[in-house]
């Protein structure tokens, strides 16, 4: 992966995360209530936000690379959240998906729009056959989002996650290329 793949949707720009996003990353990832399902402890200082930015950027250079996009509105700059495809297994043609959105941006269909765009991109540009997600069973919003996107519940991974000092079960979801009917109303433009 060389140039960062910027994606434009009707309302959003999915773009590379940059150092000026650190305050917004900190605000999102330090919100304990919003991050209770994310799979890591909330961050507590700007240095951790800087490290998170560096981690997301490093995904593109890993042996099994991935991409983490910053999400912002086209009409109103400012980071709203992130979404990404990671743990790309080229031989198996599979990867995992992850996402988070600031509470103020939730409930507006923004993550649905972002995920549809990156799913299209993953199937088109990474030659994926399968995209996986693991979600806490009580994270109802993410479970509904994945199901609306066509992901199929495949089972429960017992105590697969550990954060906030406890082990957590995770629901396993999968989406196959054959199940993805690239949604017609969304016209994502890959820049």
TrEMBL record:
<feature type="domain" description="N-acetyltransferase">
    <location>
        <begin position="12"/>
        <end position="178"/>
    </location>
</feature>
<dbReference type="InterPro" id="IPR000182">
    <property type="entry name" value="GNAT_dom"/>
</dbReference>
<dbReference type="InterPro" id="IPR051531">
    <property type="entry name" value="N-acetyltransferase"/>
</dbReference>
<dbReference type="GO" id="GO:0005737">
    <property type="term" value="C:cytoplasm"/>
</dbReference>
<dbReference type="InterPro" id="IPR016181">
    <property type="entry name" value="Acyl_CoA_acyltransferase"/>
</dbReference>
<dbReference type="Pfam" id="PF13302">
    <property type="entry name" value="Acetyltransf_3"/>
</dbReference>
<keyword id="KW-0808">Transferase</keyword>
<dbReference type="GO" id="GO:0008999">
    <property type="term" value="F:protein-N-terminal-alanine acetyltransferase activity"/>
</dbReference>
<protein>
    <submittedName>
        <fullName>Ribosomal-protein-alanine N-acetyltransferase</fullName>
    </submittedName>
</protein>
